[in-house]
Design goal:
Helices cover 35% and strands 16% of the residues. By secondary structure, the chain is an alpha/beta fold. The protein has 2 domains: 3-111 and 248-339, 3-Layer(aba) Sandwich (Rossmann fold), CATH 3.40.50.12780; 117-246, Rossmann fold (3-Layer(aba) Sandwich), CATH 3.40.50.12780. Strands 4-3-5-6-7-8-9 form a 7-stranded mixed β-sheet. Strands 10-11-12 form a 3-stranded antiparallel β-sheet. Strand 3, helix 7 (149-160) and strand 4 form a beta-alpha-beta unit. Helix 9 crosses helix 11 (228-238). Bound molecules: zinc ion (ZN). Zinc ion is lined by residues 259, 261, 266, 321, 323, 325.
Length: 342
C-alpha cells in the first residue's frame, strides 16, 4: 500500500484504489471552501482578512484561491492568537518556533489532539516507503516533550511495528556523536531520521565501519536543506538510501515526502493544498516555473493556515512520477538562507 491508497481512503475513494486526480481536486475544493468558512466563523483574524471572500460565491474552482489574500509569518507572529479557531480547552499542544529576523519574536502554532493525529497518521503511511515492522529506527529530532516532532514520529513508527530509539536532536558541536554511533552499532539501527547536518557528521565519522554499513538501509533527512554532497556522503558511508522530507511546523510538521523514485517529494494533498506563486507579484506562476511555496491547510482545527507564504522556493516537476502516484511532485526546496533573498 503506497501513499496513494492512503490518500484515496482519506478522500473517500474506494479503499486500496489509487485516487483519480479529478476526485482529489474535487475533495480539495470542498475542503478549501469549508476551511475558509470555518476560519471566518471561528477566528477574529480570518474574519477580518477574509471579510470580502464568500467561499460559496468566490471559490468555484481551485484556481479561485488566487483571489484569497496571502499571509506570512509576520501575521502569525503579530496576530497568531487571533488565528485560533478552538477554545483553549481544545488545544492539546502549542509549538514555539524561534524566528531569526531582526525582531526575533517566536511563532506559536496551536494544535488539537486531532491535528496531531493527522501527523501521526502521515508518518505511519508516508514512511512505509522507507521503514517497516522489522526496522530499528533512530530518531534524532526533538522528542523530549509529548507532541514534539520526534515524539509524533515515534508514535507513527511504533504503530507500524518498528522498534524506535528516540534520542533527540544532537548538539551541532558533535559532542554526543560518539554516543549516537555506539548506540547505532549496539542496537543494529537500520533506519534513521535526522537533520542533514547531523546525519552527514555521523556518516563522516563512521566511514569504513562495516557494522553500520551492513545494517543501515534508509535515512530520512528533514528540517534543513540537503546538499548533493551531504546526500552522497551519507549514501556512500552507510551504503543506504537517503529519502528527503519537506515540512515545517505551520504545515503540521509533515508536508511532502520523497517516494521510492526519489525525484522530488509528493505533498500530502488530502491535508494541504500547495501553490507556487511569484514572490514579487503574488500571482500564480505558470505550471513548472519556479516561485515561492504557499500552502493552505485543509483539515486543521486549532489553527488553520490559509495561503501562508513559506519563504521557500520550488516548482512543480512536470509529468507523472515514475512511482505511478497521481500526487503532484514538488521539486527539491532550495536552501532557505539563500531563497529568502530572492
Ligand atoms: Zn513518486
Amino acid at each position: 500500500m503506497n501513499i496513494d491508497s492512503w490518500i484515496a481512503a482519506k478522500i473517500g475513494s474506494e479503499q486500496g484504489e489509487a485516487p483519480a486526480r479529478a476526485a482529489l481536486s474535487a475533495y480539495q475544493l470542498a475542503r478549501l471552501r469549508e476551511t475558509i468558512a470555518y476560519a471566518k466563523r471561528n477566528s477574529p483574524f480570518y474574519e477580518r482578512t477574509l471579510a470580502d471572500i464568500d467561499p460559496d460565491r468566490d471559490i468555484r474552482a481551485l484556481e479561485d484561491i488566487a483571489s484569497v489574500p496571502l499571509m506570512d509569518e509576520t501575521a502569525l507572529i503579530d496576530e497568531g492568537e487571533l488565528m485560533i479557531c478552538v477554545p483553549a480547552s481544545g488545544v492539546s499542544r502549542i509549538v514555539t518556533v524561534e524566528t531569526s529576523g531582526t525582531i526575533g519574536l517566536p511563532k506559536r502554532i496551536y494544535f488539537t489532539e486531532e491535528d496531531q493525529e493527522l501527523m501521526i497518521d502521515y508518518v505511519y503511511h508516508g514512511l512505509k516507503v522507507m521503514a517497516g515492522s522489522s526496522d530499528v529506527f533512530l530518531v534524532l529530532m526533538p522528542c523530549e516533550r509529548p507532541g514534539s516532532v520526534g515524539d509524533l514520529v515515534r508514535i507513527g513508527l511504533e504503530r507500524m511495528g518498528a522498534s524506535v530509539i528516540a534520542l533527540g536532536i544532537l548538539p551541532v558541536d558533535g559532542s554526543r556523536d560518539a554516543e549516537a554511533l555506539a548506540l547505532m552499532r549496539e542496537r543494529g539501527v537500520t533506519s534513521m531520521l535526522a537533520t542533514a547536518g547531523a546525519a552527514a557528521r555521523l556518516a563522516e565519522k563512521s566511514i569504513g565501519d562495516m557494522t553500520l554499513e551492513k545494517n543501515m538501509r534508509t535515512v530520512l533527512l528533514s528540517a534543513e536543506y540537503v546538499s548533493d554532497d551531504r546526500r552522497a556522503l551519507i549514501e556512500r558511508a552507510w551504503d543506504c538510501k537517503v529519502f528527503e522530507h519537506y515540512g515545517m511546523t505551520e504545515m503540521g510538521l509533515g508536508g511532502a515526502m520523497a517516494c521510492e523514485a526519489r525525484s522530488g517529494y509528493h505533498p500530502r494533498e488530502a491535508d494541504i493544498l500547495f501553490e507556487i506563486i511569484d514572490p514579487m507579484t503574488g500571482e500564480p506562476v505558470p505550471d513548472g516555473a519556479y516561485g515561492e511555496v504557499v500552502f493552505t491547510t485543509l483539515t486543521r482545527q486549532a489553527m488553520p493556515f490559509i495561503r501562508y507564504r513559506t519563504g521557500d522556493f520550488s516548482r512543480w516537476l512536470p509529468g507523472r512520477c515514475s512511482c505511478g502516484s497521481v500526487l503532484k511532485r514538488l521539486a527539491r526546496v532550495g536552501d532557505r538562507k539563500i531563497t529568502k533573498g530572492y
